[in-house]
Every structure is written in C-alpha cells, then in structure tokens.
Amino acid sequence: MGLQEEVIYRLLGSTAGHSLVLMPTDAGKLLCYQIPGLLFDGGTIVVSPLISLMKDQVDALEKRGIKAEFINSTVPTEERKNELGNPLIVALTATVTPHVQQDIVSSLGVSGSAMMIFHQQIERANLRLKADECFSDGDKIE
User: Fold this and answer.
1) Is the pTM of this model over 0.90?
2) Taking a C-beta distance cutoff of 8 angstroms, is the pair 20, 115 a contact?
3) CA 139/CA 136 separation, integer angstroms
4) What is the DSSP letter of 139?
5) Max mean pLDDT range (2-11, 32-41, 42-51, 52-61)
6) How far apart are CA 119 and CA 3, in angstroms?
7) pLDDT of residue 6
8) What is the rounded average pLDDT of the residues 46-71?
9) Closest CA to 75 of 100, 40, 46
10) How many CB atoms lie within 10 A of CB 91?
C-alpha cells in the first residue's frame, strides 16, 4: 500500500482520524484530500501557507462541483470557528523539521495522540551538502 492510499484509508476508514502528511513536491499530496473530498458530505477545506495556492486548489475543486473552502490569515478567527466546527483534518506539506511538525499539530488544536503523521522520505539525488571547516575569515567563501 502506498502512502497516499494509507492516508486516504485513514481519512475514510471506520477509525477516521486527523493526519499530518509529509511528502515531497509533486508526490501526489493532492489526491490525499481530493479523493476523500469527493466522498465527504461536508466538502473539503484546503489549508495552506500559500494563499494563492489555496485559492487555486479551492477553485479547481469547485469547478469539479466539490464544495470547498480555504482558511488563511485573511479570514477572521471567529469566522473560521463558525465555518469549521470540528472537522477531520489532513495537513499536507513537503519538508519540515520535527519541531515544525509539532508546531503544525499544536496550531491546529489537535492533541498529538489524535494526529497520525505520515512521512514519505525525500530522496533527491541532485541535492548535495558540503561543509568546509573555516579557521579564519580568509577561509570563508562569500
């Protein structure tokens, strides 16, 4: 079973629960909320740190006849609470540190035990990290 399938089963299964999904860019995070969104009676809410991306995603869902909303800093807190109630949450992102993962869970107001974290390892052969020891300012490359 692939990670996307695991996430979808987590959201749609009899023991449905909140999920934090960490997958690289272009790995198919979209399916993790679009398929459940098609099957949920209440629609789909897209939350993203990128306001323009959120709007694009919600517009794409609505064009397909899927009820969708987005939440961001432009939506007042009270309005967010009134609109949402207590929805099932799936948060999706590409790469974050463990500290940021916990910050996301905390910011969503979900207890750690209620949130399952799905983490697809990122392997990018084209990325390299090299560290050189510098003993003086003259050794540094700017």
Assistant:
1) no
2) yes
3) 5
4) G
5) 2-11
6) 8
7) 92
8) 79
9) 46
10) 20
The H or E element that residue 134 is part of is none
Q: Are 47 and 18 in contact (CB under 8 A)?
A: no
The span from the CA of 60 to the CA of 53, in Å, is 11
Q: What are phi and psi of 91, to 5 degrees?
A: -100, 130
The whole-angstrom separation of Cα 52 and Cα 29 is: 17
pLDDT over 70 at 1, yes or no: no
- CA-wise closest residue to 88 among 121, 42, 26, 142: 42
Q: Between the CA of residue 66 and those of 33, 36, 40, 60, 120, what are the distances in Å?
A: 12, 11, 10, 9, 27
51-63 vs 29-39: helix axis angle to the nearest 10? 40
Which amino acid, 112?
Answer: G
DSSP, collapsed to helix, strand or coil, labels residue 105 as helix
Distance between first and last Cα of the chain: 47
| Confidence label for 46 from pLDDT (cuts 50, 70 and 90) | low
